[in-house]
Structure formats: C-alpha cells, structure tokens
Amino acid sequence: MVINTNISALNAASQLQQNSMNLSASLARLSSGSKIVSPADDSAGLGVSMKLGAQIARTGAAQNNVGNAISFNQTQDGYLQQVNTALTRMSELSVSAQDVTKTTSDRALYQQEYSTLGSYVNDVATKSFNGVSLFNGNTLKVTSDSEGATFSNLGVDLGTTTYTTATSDNITSLSGAGKALKDTEAAITQLASDRANIGSNEETLGYYNAQLSSLSNNLSAAKSQITDVDVATESTQYAKENILVQSGTAMLAQANSLPQSVLRLLS
After folding, report:
1. What does the chain look like in DSSP terms, one character per residue?
2. Same domain, 97 and 144
3. What is the mean pLDDT of residues 104-109?
4. Which of 54, 145, 181, 238 has minimal Cβ neighbours within 10 Å of its Cβ?
5. What is the pLDDT of residue 267?
6. Same structural domain for residues 24 and 62?
7. Do 239 and 197 sit in the same domain of this protein?
C-alpha cells in the first residue's frame, strides 16, 4: 500500500468527472428541449438541421408570397364583379335607347347614366394593390417555392380598346345605341375571359399554397427528428447519470480514506 499516489481516488475522480459532465449535458438537453446543445453533440446533425431550418424559412416566405398573390387576384375579381354589373346595365341602356318611342331628350337621360357607368369602369382600370396596378395587363411572376421558381400570374387589362370603346360610346341616337350594344357585348365577352383567367390563377395558386404548407410541415418534422430531445428517453438518462454521480461521490470519499489505513501500520 502507498500513500503518495492514491490510484483508486484518481480513478474514482476521473469517473466522477465524466459522469458529472454527462449529467450536465443531459440537464442542458432537458432544459433547452434540444438534443444538440453544442456543435460537439452532433456536428453532422447540426449542419443538416441548419440547412433544413433555412429551407423552412424560405418556404414560409414563398407561402406568404403566394398568399399575397391570391389576395391580389381576389381583389381583382371583386372589382370585376362590379364592372360586370356596370357593363350589363350599359348594354341594357343601349337596348332601351333603341326604343323608337323614345325622344332625343329621353335618350339623353339614358346617355347620362351610360356615361356615368363608363366613367366608373375607366376609374376601376386605375386601381392598385399595395402600389401594384391591378389592371394594367402585366403578367406577374409569383415565387412558388423555396428555390425561387415562379408561377406566371396572368394579368387583366381594362385599358384595352375593347373596354374603352364601350365606355366612350354615345347612345343619344339610334345608330349610336346600336353600336354601343355591340361594343358592350364585346366588352362583356372579354370580361368573362378575364375573370376566367383570374379564376385559373387563384386555383393554381391555391395548389401551390397547399403544397408549400405540406412541405413546411414535412421539413419541420425532419428537423425535429434531428434536434428535438425525446423527453422520456432523456429523463431516464438524466436519472441514470444522477445516480452515477451520487455513487461516484460516495466512492471517491471511500477511496480518499484508504491511505488512512496505512497510518494504522505506523501506530
């Protein structure tokens, strides 16, 4: 037996230190809810989780873009519903103005309403959504995924001659009323096509929105598998390490008392 070097105490201290480190790590995981508290815990997993996290953020941004584009199309259609009502009434007025029992004065009254409705349609053509023109006919490129791919959102142009000709007609004469009827019918036909395009835009964007939502959920689940701690498993590990630390502390105390037995040989 020796008293200068207590090998048993050194071994017990080394084991206690390791168990204490494991206990601290387990406690950190439980308190943070993450399996990766530091890069040393899982360097490869950390790298993968960082890339997944970035893709989740980009997917969320793309989903916001798609949602805003859907709102843009819904706003367009809201205006065009009223334009349809106005053009329908204008076509009705153009037919009424062709009544041979009506006088020029009567037709002038019809023209007043016709012009007012035409001005409304022309005014709608100038409307915008957050500073972006709703009806200039431009096709908008909507970001549809996390990698920057785009969807071509077809535009509507209320400034085309099909609309402007109808809104500028004069129905104070029989010939003028006849022309206005043909022009408003053409405008209504064009409007039907434009609203169909908007419906197609909304439907497709809805698919993209659902796809992005599903992708975000799946990416989050994959990231969770790498980074999120299993509380039940980790609690068991924590209890184990806690017991080992307590046991190691007791054994270190016993190892430190061994040299005292040598003193009995000297007494």
Report:
1. --SS--HHHHHHHHHHHHHHHHHHHHHHHHHHSBS-SSGGG-HHHHHHHHHHHHHHHHHHHHHHHHHHHHHHHHHHHHHHHHHHHHHHHHHHHHHHTT-TT--HHHHHHHHHHHHHHHHHHHHHTT-EETTEESSB-PPEEEE-STT--EEEE---BTTSHHHHHHHT---SSHHHHHHHHHHHHHHHHHHHHHHHHHHHHHHHHHHHHHHHHHHHHHHHHHHHHHHB--HHHHHHHHHHHHHHHHHHHHHHHHHHHHHHHHHHHH-
2. yes
3. 93
4. 54
5. 61
6. no
7. no
Two structure tokens written together for 20: 């204490």
CB atoms within 10 A of CB 169: 21
Asked whether residue 115 falls in the same domain as residue 147, the answer is yes
CA geometry: angle at 92 spanning 89 and 95, to 5°?
155
Find, among 43, 32, 24, 31, the residue nearest to 226 by Cα. 43
Distance CA 11, CA 256 (A): 11
Domain shared by 213 and 178, yes or no: yes
Range of the domain at 247: 7-34+230-266
pTM (global) more than 0.70: yes
Distant-in-sequence, close-in-space partners of 121: CB < 8 Å, separation ≥ 6: 83, 86, 87, 158, 163, 166, 167
- What pLDDT was estimated at residue 244? 76
Q: What is the mean pLDDT of residues 129-158?
A: 95
Cβ pair 162, 152 in contact under 8 A:
no
